[in-house]
Automatic annotation (TrEMBL):
Protein name: MFS transporter
Protein source organism: Candidatus Limivivens intestinipullorum
GO molecular function: transmembrane transporter activity
Any single GO CC term annotated in Swiss-Prot or TrEMBL for this entry: plasma membrane
Gene3D superfamilies documented for this protein: MFS general substrate transporter like domains (1.20.1250.20)
One Pfam family of this chain: MFS_1
Family membership: Belongs to the major facilitator superfamily.
């Protein structure tokens, strides 16, 4: 039965990734239809991020009261409702409205599942599970490009994804007995009456919490800026058509997915700290490759390398949290890390949208490289405050 629960968690990680790359792949088509500037995607991400930040900060209280299983099931349902609502939109404000349930659902399920896996499984499982998240991010753009190439509108891409998400939500509700059977309340928060939740102030006072917050802010900024603006960069700067750009944009997530599946094996030989540092350096190399004016192939290679670099950073840091801060504090810390990641998404991709509008979209590689270098500096500051093996 415990293997069945692990299979359910794997599927839940796929559901986390399904909508994450959808807007970026469809936006070159969507913004013209809505009559908004190309930077309008930044506003959508800001709304989603407000929801994910709030629900991430509430995750410690929610999981200790309702349990990881129920929080996951309800959260996946909320994301499905948001995606289906997006498929019905004909005006930009409607798209903004349906971004609210998606954001609220995404934050809670992300924090709850990451803490559960970090507390109960080896580092290789964390990497492999996040590789399954990458599978979800790959599916999204391909579904969108399938709809667009078939002569359908972007609405159908959203609608098809929502049907998949509703199916996963039903599976999550059906699996609730597994969580109750195999997840003790004291350590996982799967039943009500668990430990007292830490306040935000108490969590930030923990040694290393602020530095970890900064690293995750940069990581969220790097990943989402790279994903959101990849298609627009290729269309507006590289002269690639919208359908091809939507397909090529998924290569960034293919890099992340392949990297995380491989990282699961590398963690058997290398420590989390080594994996994190190597990933940051590789991501910087990928961003730097985008500077080279050597054609479409090098641009695609740069995206893949950047994705490979991002692969071990998130899961390896998350897996270190229970060991650094303790099992009783890990949910609170992971909650603020999810919110930090969300804040990076909230602020940095929209900021690049303004840069693209008012200066040039060609600054995309420089923007990604700058964020990566700051993240590397913050990680070394974190090492001075907390022990990461």
């Amino acid at each position: 039965m415990i293997h069945l629960l692990l299979a359910v968690i794997y599927i839940a990680f796929v559901s986390l990734g399904l909508p994450d790359s959808l807007l970026g792949s469809a936006w070159p088509t969507m913004y013209r239809e809505f009559g908004v500037p190309v930077s309008g995607a930044g506003l959508i991400y800001m709304i989603v991020t407000c929801g994910t930040t709030f629900s991430s900060l509430m995750s410690d209280r929610l999981t200790k009261r309702f349990g990881t299983g129920l929080v996951t099931a309800v959260s996946v349902t909320l994301t499905a409702v948001g995606i289906f609502g997006d498929s019905l939109c004909s005006q930009f404000w409607q798209l903004c409205l349906f971004s609210i349930p998606y954001g609220l659902g995404a934050g809670s399920v992300d924090a709850a599942l990451n803490n559960y896996v970090a507390s109960h499984y080896a580092s290789r499982h964390m990497s492999w599970l996040h590789g399954l998240w990458g599978v979800g991010t790959i599916i999204g753009p391909y579904v969108m490009s399938f709809a667009l190439a078939g002569g359908l509108t972007w609405n159908y891409g959203y609608r098809y994804l929502s049907f998949i998400q509703f199916g996963i939500a039903l599976l999550m509700f059906a699996s609730l007995p597994l969580w109750k059977r195999h997840a003790p309340a004291k350590s996982t928060g799967t039943q009500s009456g668990g430990e007292k939740a830490l306040t935000l102030r108490e969590t930030f006072r923990l040694p290393g919490a602020r530095q970890a917050f900064g690293v995750f802010f940069c990581y969220g900024a790097l990943e989402q800026t790279a994903a959101l603006w990849a298609s627009s960069y290729m269309v507006l700067h590289c002269g690639i058509d919208a359908v091809s750009a939507a397909r090529y944009a998924s290569l960034f997530y293919i890099g992340i997915t392949a990297g995380r599946l491989a990282s699961g094996f590398f963690t058997l030989r290398f420590t989390n700290r080594q994996m994190i540092r190597f990933g940051m350096i590789l991501a910087a190399c990928g961003a730097a490759a985008l500077f080279l004016p050597l054609g479409r192939a090098v641009t695609i290679a740069g995206l893949v390398i950047a994705g490979l670099g991002c692969a071990p950073i998130y899961p390896c840091i998350i897996h270190s949290i229970p060991g650094i801060f303790g099992m009783d504090k890990s949910q609170a810390v992971i909650g603020i890390l999810m919110s930090a990641c969300s804040m990076g998404v909230f602020l940095m991709p929209p900021l690049f949208g303004l840069i693209a509008n008012n200066i040039s979209v060609s600054l995309y590689p420089a923007y990604l490289l700058g964020i990566t270098l700051v993240m590397l500096l913050l990680f070394h500051a974190l090492l001075k405050q907390a022990r990461i093996k």
